[in-house]
Amino acid sequence: MIAHLPALQVVLPLLFAPVCVLLRQHTLVWLVTLLVSWAVFIMACLSIPVVFDIGPLSYELGGWAAPWGIEYKLDQLSAFVVLIVTAIGAIVITYARQSVTHEIPRDRVYLFYTAYLLNLTGILGVVVTGDVFNLFVFIEISSLSSYALISIGRDRRALMAAYRYLVLGTIGATFILIGVGLLYVMTGTLNIDDLQQRLVDLEEQRTVITALAFLTVGISLKFALFPLHFWLPNAYTYAPSVISVFLASTTTKVFIYVLLRFLFSIFGASFVYDVVHVDRILLICSVLAIFSGSLSAIYQDNIKRMLAYSSIAQIGYMVLGVGLASVTGVLAGIIHLFNHALMKAALFMCMGCVFYRIGSVSIGQMKGIGRTMPWTMAAFVIAGLSLVGVPLTVGFISKWYLIQAAIEQDNWVIVITVLAGSLLAMIYIWRVVEAAYFQEPDIGTDTAGHGEAPPMMVIALWVVIIANIYFGINAEMTSGFARRSAEFLLGAWP
Question: How far is CA 469 from CA 80, 84, 269, 315, in A?
């Protein structure tokens, strides 16, 4: 059974996606999706000790050995990312039922769950595959289903947001495909491990450098690195709440994983850092992302848009770790994949609860809501403190490692950037807290119908909040996984 886990994690949601189309009934399709989501999460948990204690898991499709056949492979990094994705997927679908009914027309509900399972198939396939063309195929599966998920709600503005995402996402995918094609022309292989071996003797070729450029730009567009982020704010703002939670917590993380995989598992750290100096470009873009995203978030009245701009800043922190060009820096970036997934899932889930009750996520409409939705807003405060980086939360762990990596290189500009980003995050989080707890509702505002969201939504939210605190106090497991992944990627470099 263990040997089949890499394939089962992709095949299971793919097989059950059409089942949702056949069943159609809301409760049944939710139950099917719930069982599949928890099943792949359990598989991810089972694979973690095997991969970290024994070694990578490999599955050869059709019995064709790599590099001639397509290989699914779980190593230290991919197993950790699969754990993040499946954990978020399981808790999001547990949370989703009432929110989906409230925000998505009833005749589209089964289509939502179908598209969700296809999206889960795509992003898990991206992480698990050991073949770069197969990776591109899974990217397209996840992207196409994402466009459908964003536009499936009642808000017509989501259609334009999905269309913009489609156009820019297609450009990013084209860049990735061109990069993959150039690598194939130079090496004659598409297997990741085989590519790494064959590129060692081709590093000085202009075609290889061009391929790296196309891949870096295309992948960066996919995870919205500044200045390629313009699709993200509207997509997160106008998508149904459940989709905002899932995309913000998983999709960007998976594409940062793809960047890490290409930079280190294919091109190699010495080529990326010592020859092409990609780290310098990533460092500049990440610093600009932190400041531009945080400053833009401060001026937003729509909290989902505020959190979307906050995500741009948080993506900057993840890429900042890669740009610091050290094991500690890459460790910080990888652990922030996990920590940010918890933080942003909790924040968007809070907004899903608020929207369920008052039909708005505007700061102006949330005056005094801390008294009518105490559990939801308490969760928002804790998740907000985690985003700022307050001790005893996961956000502190990420920023601690980033600062440590910067101090190792005597790079005080980066230390100041991280601290300044935290102060800016405090400003926009405080705007929501002030409205919720320290302002009275406007005269004439009817608060009689306000109250907590359905119990399942609140319980799922607090599971994520407890995880924010637990992994902020006991970070031994996550930091251990992240360190071993970073050492695995960088190998003997420098």
Answer: 19, 16, 34, 21
- Give the whole-angstrom CA distance, residue 79 versus residue 121: 15
Give the mean pLDDT of 455-459. 91
Length of the chain (residues) = 494
Query: What is the value of pTM for the model shown?
Result: 0.92
And the tokens for 341? 């997934």
State yes or no: pLDDT of 64 exceeds 80: no
3-state secondary structure of 228: coil
CA atoms within 13 A on the CB side of 210: 11
The amino acid occupying position 110 is Y
Per-residue pLDDT tens over the stretch 333-351: 999 989 999 999 999 999 9
Q: What's the CA gap between 451 and 457, in Å, rounded?
A: 13
- The rounded distance, in Å, linking the Cα atoms of 196 and 340 is 30
Q: Where are the alpha helices (DSSP H) in 56-129?
A: 76-103, 109-128
Give the pLDDT band of residue 449 (cuts 50, 70, 90). low
Give tens-digit pLDDT for 278-308: 888 999 999 999 999 999 999 999 999 999 9
Which of 205, 30, 54, 227 has the alpha carbon at shortest distance from 114? 30
> How would you label 290-305 residue by residue, b for 16+ Cβ within 10 Å and e otherwise?
bbbbbebbeebebbbb
Distance CA(39)–CA(21), nearest Å, equals 20
Number of neighbours of residue 160 by Cβ within 10 angstroms: 12
Confirm if 111 and 269 have CB atoms less than 8 A apart: no
What are 60's strand-pairing partners?
Answer: 71
Residue-wise pLDDT tens digits, 233-266: 998 999 898 999 999 999 888 999 999 999 888 8
493 — pLDDT class (breaks 50, 70, 90): low
Q: What angle do CA 165, 168, 170 make, to 5 degrees?
A: 100
* Model confidence band, residue 492 (pLDDT cutoffs 50, 70, 90): low
Quickly tell me which residue has 């993200």 as its tokens.
232
Which H helix or E strand runs over 422?
A: helix 412-438
Instruction: Please list the alpha-helical segments (H only) found in 223-360.
Output: 232-238, 241-246, 252-260, 269, 278-298, 303-323, 327-358
Give dist(CA 256, CA 105) in Å, integer. 33
> Are the C-beta atoms of 223 and 315 separated by less than 8 Å?
yes
Q: CA 345 to CA 494: how far, in whole Å?
A: 36
How distant is the alpha carbon of residue 467 from its chain centre? 17
Which residue, among 377, 225, 202, 347, has the nearest Cα to 292 in the 3D structure?
A: 225
Q: How far is residue 256 from each of residues 19, 261, 298, 337, 421, measured CA to CA in Å?
A: 31, 9, 25, 8, 20
Cβ contact 328:476 at 8 Å: no
